[in-house]
């Protein structure tokens, strides 16, 4: 697969937001059914886009945008965070997510630890991070072990089940 990660320009941001929201909405609705509420609000995407050390890429395959990723890079500690990784709806299940992730690893070879999280219901994501990308589950937030500093409007409030994953390099 000849996938290329390209740094995003301001002109790409609107399409990125639309595509990531569509992918996250579909993942949620595949499990819980139709939902009128936006599962990934634009302000949450903006928070990742504007976060400290944030770097944003679009994934391009044969001239077509097929996904994207936001990472937060801490050049001092090299403990980096995967904020968002998405594969565009309609092209999932073809190894694109795996290609995106391994391209990120190549771009940041000095990383000591990668961290990310996903909700408990996203079995596809849990499989992806653990079985495909080599992450390990390090924490499970739920009502008995609440996630601190969760935004008030966070879907599911973080205490209904969020897995934290880490990958030591």
Automatic annotation (TrEMBL):
Repeat as UniProt keyword: no
Chain ranges of the N-acetyltransferase domain: 3-152
Matches recorded under Pfam families: Acetyltransf_1
A single GO molecular function term of this UniProt record: acyltransferase activity, transferring groups other than amino-acyl groups
The keyword S-adenosyl-L-methionine appears for this protein: no
Secretion signal span: none
Keywords associated with the record: Transferase
Protein name: Acetyltransferase, GNAT family
Organism field: Anaerobutyricum hallii DSM 3353
Source lineage: Bacteria, Bacillati, Bacillota, Clostridia, Lachnospirales
């Amino acid at each position: 697969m000849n996938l290329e990660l390209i740094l995003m320009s301001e002109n790409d941001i609107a399409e990125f937001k639309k595509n990531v929201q569509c992918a996250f909405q579909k993942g949620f609705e595949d499990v819980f059914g139709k939902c009128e509420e936006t599962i990934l609000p634009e302000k949450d995407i903006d928070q990742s886009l504007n976060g400290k050390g944030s770097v944003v890429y679009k994934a391009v395959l044969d001239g077509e945008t097929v996904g994207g990723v936001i990472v937060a890079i801490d050049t001092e500690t090299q403990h980096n965070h995967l904020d968002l990784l998405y594969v565009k709806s309609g092209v999932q299940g073809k190894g694109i997510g795996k290609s995106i992730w391994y391209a990120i690893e190549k771009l940041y070879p000095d990383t000591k630890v990668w961290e990310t999280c996903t909700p408990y219901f996203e079995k596809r994501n849990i499989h992806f991070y653990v079985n495909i990308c080599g992450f390990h589950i390090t924490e499970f937030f739920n009502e008995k072990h609440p996630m601190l500093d969760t935004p008030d409007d966070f879907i599911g409030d973080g205490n209904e089940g969020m897995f934290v994953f880490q990958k030591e390099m």
